[in-house]
Design goal:
Helices cover about 45% and strands about 10% of the residues. It contains 12 helices and 8 strands. The strands form 2 sheets. The protein has a 5-stranded antiparallel β-sheet with strand order 2-1-8-7-6. It has a 3-stranded antiparallel β-sheet with strand order 3-5-4. A hairpin with a 3-residue loop joins strand 7 and strand 8. The chain starts with a helix and ends in a 5-residue tail after the last helix. It binds glutamic acid.
Length: about 300
């Protein structure tokens, strides 16, 4: 399979409409300044190659893609007990919805909506004493790029406008589903969301799942079964309340973020990361989903 040619073709497919549809996530002021027409993609393969198009080396705010790596660190330590504090069903509601949380007594539907990620951050904070630092460390090691860092301006910007996440966190604390102080959990959550990685970095870090849980140095972080379960959750819950539509189009486990990033795992091949900041109304990158739709359709490769 000539992956570079397939990436080039998918890029040519999305290039004419970049920035023409959707909008950047302006509810986080620091993200409102990102150009809507930017685009990059990288495929890190299991045999050690990295194919790239566009701005594949430019760091962007990974936002909710960080929720995946928080879960990767928390699940092997907590085991099945983690699922007493957060569910594993698609939410069918926006990623920052408050209503469902009240109906369900402060147990978030899944770890990839904001409320669920706040619980996982709380668990990881107890586990490590520094949730965002643990995620940063994992991403640096797995990407091989030790310049990966938190964009503190984005973290501060989100904290300044973070009333909705604060509401989710306070509500869950009132239900007994946060163990650390609310302000500490929120601060760690904003920092993890503000991690800045390029498509290249993110694809390389995603290889952890393509290798069924083995780290870059060959040591196991997840069991094969845990890697399977996390990817199943990516498929069913990784793209907010559009997970069904995205699964229909891509047939891949993936996780999106409102910074315009998408990380997808292509079984037997590697990990794909895309960045296109213009989002649809559900919060997913329009260009990223179009790109991966084209790539999986033309290559005939997906989970199915
Ligand atoms: N930091 C963002 C928020 O909490 C993450 C949302 C996302 O990427 O889905 O609103």
């Amino acid at each position: 399979m000539d992956w570079q040619r397939l990436l080039d073709q998918a890029y040519a497919h999305v290039a004419p409409s970049l920035g023409q549809r959707g909008r950047v996530a302006d509810y986080i002021p620091a993200l409102a300044q990102v150009p809507a027409h930017a685009f990059g993609a990288a495929l890190a393969t299991l045999d050690g190659e990295c194919h790239e198009v566009g701005e594949a080396g430019k760091p962007f705010s990974i936002q909710s893609v960080s929720k995946l790596f928080a879960l990767i660190l928390a699940l092997p330590v907590q085991g099945e007990a983690l699922w007493t504090r957060v569910g594993k069903e698609p939410s069918g509601n926006p990623f920052n919805s408050l209503v469902q949380l009240e109906y369900e007594q402060g147990i978030p539907r899944n770890p990839f909506i904001n409320a669920g990620a706040l619980v996982v951050t709380d668990i990881l904070q107890t586990q490590t004493g520094g949730a965002s630092a643990a995620i940063l460390d994992l991403l640096r090691t797995e990407s091989g790029n030790f310049e990966v860092a938190v964009d503190v301006a984005v973290a501060a910007s989100e904290a300044a406008e973070g009333n909705r996440n604060a509401a989710l966190a306070h509500f869950m604390a009132s239900c007994g589903n946060l163990r650390n102080p609310v302000e500490l959990v929120l601060g760690e959550y904003f920092r993890q969301c503000a991690l800045a990685l390029s498509c290249r970095d993110l694809a390389k870090a995603g290889l952890l799942l393509a290798r069924h849980g083995l780290r870059a140095d060959g040591t196991p972080l997840l069991t094969r079964s845990e890697a399977k379960r996390i990817q199943a959750l990516m498929m069913t819950c990784g793209t907010y309340d559009a997970a069904g539509e995205v699964a229909y189009r891509l047939g891949l486990p993936c996780k999106s973020g409102v910074g315009g990033g998408l990380l997808a795992i292509l079984p037997g091949v590697g990990a794909l990361a895309t960045w296109g900041p213009a989002l649809d109304e559900k919060g997913n990158s329009i260009a990223g989903v179009d790109f991966l739709d084209h790539l999986t359709t033309q290559s005939g490769r997906s989970v199915f």
